[in-house]
């Protein structure tokens, strides 16, 4: 019994925890707890946070002296995940169990985000929209002959005005003045 221990026997929390769990805790053997931990699998509808909680709860039931080394725990943790996720966690190659748990939680958030985006895109694709194609402007055709003809006519008229002005100024012996032209009237494109 816990109360029949000598004074000063419990010097830290780990010792107290081991004694307390031995007296009041799970009555399963260490071997069965280790077996359960090594065969633990994430349920298909289970969130990673909940699975991590379950994994850690089972891990805490095993005494510190009986716990497997970190590499074995990481291997068990990774193998307990679904196969489509396992490869990403293994590729991260983290040294501690906590780091691996953080990687998988981050991955789960990304997966959920992608699923939501996919669902949103799917809903959008199913929406029926009625577009008025008459209002839609057609792209400019650079080989538009009518537009080109308008530009050429405008340029021809400008050239005629310039020629007329040059002819008048040379016969009247007036100094040639700068002919101003509005380029925006020429450019119709």
Which tags fit this structure?
2 domains; 8 helices; 189 residues; rod-shaped; mainly alpha
Question: What does it look like?
Answer:
By secondary structure, this protein is mainly alpha-helical. It has two domains: about 1-125, no CATH class; about 145-185, no CATH class. Helices cover about 60% and strands about 0% of the residues. The chain is built from eight helices and no strands. It has helices spanning about 15-25, 30-40, 50-60, 70-80, 85-90, 95-125, 145-170, 185. Helix 5 (about 85-90) crosses helix 6. It is rod-shaped. The chain starts with 12 loop residues before the first helix and ends with a helix. The model has no long low-confidence stretch (mean pLDDT about 80).
